[in-house]
Amino acid sequence: MQKIIPTSFPEVKSSLETLKNAFTSSLHQLVVKGNELQQVAEHLVTGTVARDFPRCDLVEGGGELLILFELPGLAREDFQLEIGGGLLTLRGEKKSRIQGRGAAIHLGECLYGAFERTISLPVKVTEEKAVAELTAGVLVVTIPKAEAGDHPKHPIPIK
User: Fold this and answer.
1) Is the pLDDT of residue 134 over 70?
2) Between these two residues, 43 and 116, which has the higher pLDDT value?
3) For residue 100, which phi and psi values (nearest 5 degrees)?
4) What phi and psi, each to the nearest 5 degrees, are found at residue 64?
5) 144 bridge partner residues
6) SS3 label, residue 59
7) Between 20 and 30 A from 79 (CA), which of 8, 61, 95, 115?
8) Residue 138 half-sphere exposure, CB side, CA atoms within 13 Å?
9) Alpha carbon distance 118, 88 (integer Å)
10) Is the bond preceding 157 in cis, omega lying within 30 degrees of 0?
């Protein structure tokens, strides 16, 4: 049968450590949920698009990473792409084409507003050799895999 009440100092110390770890873990989860709620509130107040916009696929194969972002209706001038420290960041703004026309919107499912999406790259890459191409609303980023360490952030040219 397991003891419920510790009877020695080491047992008390161990029980307190277990309680402290459980409390710390619960507090961390609460902070994470609070951050998620803050992001939702910011979206509602500022009108920024959903935090998982744009949708993307990340594929590893053939000595490289391919990251595909769906960017319907956006031109190269509407966003910026940056890589550094094992992170790929895409930020920009999708503007509404119908606001200010005095029209009544009967259905509004399209997302508009500022966006920022950061993807953590799963392997080390040669960041300075990253290239990107926008075709038919899909941005394809190709990054060769590497064994090298960290590199400073720099913009990726888009063809």
Assistant:
1) yes
2) 116
3) 80, 5
4) -150, 165
5) 64
6) strand
7) 61
8) 8
9) 6
10) no
Q: Give the type of residue at 148.
A: A
pTM for the full predicted model: 0.60
**Cβ proximity of 112 and 47 under 8 Å:** yes
Which amino acid, one-letter code, is at 33? K
E strand or H helix at 18, and its extent? helix 9-46
CA torsion, points 116, 113, 158, 137, in degrees to nearest 10?
110
pLDDT recorded at residue 76:
93
Q: Which residues contact 108 (CB under 8 A, 6 or more apart)?
A: none
Side-chain half-sphere exposure of 87, counting CA atoms within 13 A: 9
Residue 47 has pLDDT above 70, yes or no: no
Backbone angles phi, psi at 21, to 5 degrees: -65, -40
Q: What is the pLDDT of residues 9-27, one digit of tens each?
A: 777 778 788 888 888 878 7
Tokens of 9: 């100092």
Burial grade of 112 (CB within 10 A; 0-12, 13-18, 19 or more): middle
